[in-house]
Amino acid sequence: MKPTPILAAAIAASALALAAGAQAQDTQSGDVKETLKDDARTVGHAVADSAKTVGHAVADTSRKVGHEVAEKTAPAREKIRDDSRKAGTAIAHGARTVGTDVKKGAAKAKAAVAPKAEEPKAASEPKPGG
Known about the structure:
Layout: H1 3-26, H2 30-113
């Protein structure tokens, strides 16, 4: 047998089954549909309430764990903060020292390069050519 006739037969059987199911649904009474709708609504509300309860439990546990972790790591955080403060102070002091040394060196270099001004002549000296 060829696969095409088998496939066609399977599709036809599926279509007939769907059509029969659709007719069966149409014959259900309105009461059954309302009952199913109410049951689905009740189940949905129950699931939502359970999810809310579980969510609150997870949040509470997470909060407790977070506080425990914060409490256990407090000494390490304080040590890091103190060490960082000391390092920052040392770096600032070093930068100030270097800045002061550079400023003094620049002043010395400028003084060495700048021409020295000669002392002005006294007013009592006669001017040449006069």
